[in-house]
Amino acid sequence: MEAIERMLSGGHPNSMGRTVEVVELVAADRSRLQELFDCYGSEDPVVRLRTSSAFKRLEAARHEWLVPFADRLIDDVGTLDQPSAQWTLAKLFLRLTADLTPDQRDRATLLLQRNLEREHDWVVLINTMETLSAWSDGDPALRAWLDPQLERLAEDPRTSVAERARNLAARARGDREPSGAPASDGGGRVAVTASRRGPR
Fold it and tell me: CA-to-CA distance for 195 and 184, rounded, in angstroms?
């Protein structure tokens, strides 16, 4: 039986490699889901990137399988200093919103707030803004924290980031959303040369 980490390694760093094959394998055999998650602890940044891609695809196919991993996504994957992990978490947290406990939601919020303040990758920023904006509906404290962040990012030199920040701010005010660059789904190329922190 071929190891999943090996299946996710090799090839061009920005290619999918055998990611789809891995997703199909795990979707057909839930017992290998833990093995896939453990690939987040790989020393190879390409493997970690493809692990994120696999988890995003697996959530769409087997949403309920990811719910028991919520704590580890927050506490373990949340420590990785890699854009692909950070924007994937933002997307997964949004999709898991109804499944998170209040404590998990609070911890995930703190993680996303940290990333929005500190990170510079445009895909991370857009996806993190999206999730925090959705979660700020009905949460005045989060809304009060987020508004100045959106104002700051509305001045970002990258059009995609600035336009999305302005659109989300306008939506929160109830304005008609201005035209501009659409939100990215995080499908663009993501550098994998970032340093690594987290589970080994």
Answer: 24
